[in-house]
Amino acid sequence: MLSRFMSGSIRNLEREYNCTVRLLDDSEYTCTIQRDAKGQYLFDLICHHHNLLEKDYFGIRYVDPDKQRHWLGFTKCIAKQMKSQPPFTMCLRVKFYPPDPAALKEEITRYLVFLQIKRDLYHGRLLCKTSDAAMLAAYILQAEVGDYDPGKHPEGYSSKFQFFPKHSEKLERRISDIHKTELIGQTPEESELNFLQKAQELETYGVDPHPCKDVSGNPAFLAFTPFGFTVLQGNRRVHFLNWDEVTKLKFEAKTFHIYANQKEDKKIILTYFAPTPEACKHLWKCGVENQAFYKLDKSSQVRTVSSSNLFFKGSRFRYSGRVAKEVMEQSAKIKREPPEIHRAGLVPSRSCPSITHGPRLTSVPRQRRRAVHISIMEGLESLRDSAHSTPVRSVSHGDSFMPRHRHQTTDAGEGGSSQRVISDEAYCPSDSVLPTPTAEHSLELAVARHPNGAPCSIEEEESEAGTPEGQVAEFGPDGRVLRLGRTRKSLPNNEVQELHKFILSVLRMFLVTMGLLFALLSLLIMLTESDLDIAFLRDIRKTPEFQQFHFEYFCPLRRWVACKFRWMGGFLIDK
Length: 575
What we know:
alpha+beta, five-stranded antiparallel sheet, 19 strands, 17% strand, elongated, transmembrane, phosphoprotein, cell junction, FA
């Protein structure tokens, strides 16, 4: 009896696993779910935890062992999507940014979007000029600490907060002045709403950047926003296409294509190259989902999309969910008492350190930067401490950002006139990373840098190690890297994997081609040699082209083949 009970308990444990979801306020939600549970079940648990009804804007993101980010599919089994072993660690994030955050029905939804945009500002994804940066930071300060109080807020109190990857003392003073004089009396709800309305006017609102390279090999960031597709390169926005102009999104291996129709029937094709085929597929799926969400009027209009024109090749994907217009209509029907919101206040936050955190990062880079390892998906992810190099500075051009109603315009062509400056510095959202408490097994790592000079850093929980896998770093007394050495254990060669995929693709194409040829040959024999009296066969036989082909080509070929067979038969008999 006891043995049966123990075996039954073990089987039940094998059918369940733990899952941890990091929320937007950096708290964690842990639950136990069945092995066959789908993504929708976990997402519903999180929404119930937040008492959230306008949930279509949000999604759950995870990172696989190859450091590739993914959105959790709600219609698929969670265990089949995760490439690692449980327990699983994921993050709740805004997947579709609201085109107008002020139009959201409930305050809890606006608060969660506020936390996401505050995170974007801190991680360098939301760029702006100094005047806008000071106003955004002042709104955050007012929402978190309330009205200025000389007894509670000593001189330089704003320097204890870290709103951006890097900022100067002049900007800190400007933030304090706005907080002291212009925002008195605003409640947290009002400050958050004003913050959202201000952020919505910026060009990089809603940008979730995907690093790529153009056809010339220059680095670029591709992103999908509520208003369309945008390309950021250097310190300029080089392309912007409305969703109505984008006609098709395709990818093959690492190559990503965007087809668009601009004014006067001008058709353009933009081509970019992702770091890996998996990153390119993720980029394509994000584009398909964003286009369906923002462009379509009804979810019934959603169609399955193929990444290739050939029916036997490529990936097929279909967005499952409601579109933006349906979400707004459903939100208007919500009638309930507003749920209680538990704001983080002064609780230390990994994404935006509060007043209890360390001193301000000055414009002078630190000589030593510290990285920490924490376990994400069995230790495969690592997070680095701050290593910022992109300041938020004023642009020499008077108005570097378009207001919201100008988001609907399109940058024409590729010339210099179509490029819009968004920052004095190169747009590099990965220049800031998430400070995280040190785990017991934390290590001291140096900041590795890319050949182009950008830090080899990562964003939030979706992170990469400071040094490449398969290498170890030796450090000097000042913490700098002296030498990188190759470890004995290394990952499989990506080139070998790509070669295997290429060989499989060629074999598949060969088999399909042979199948088509066999089908055509069978149809030809049926037309010429059979006596089947079928309507479509009879019509084909009566055409002049078929009769000419039959008497001038097929009959001589048949006599030649028959002669060869008779010769071979006689040759074999004589032997």
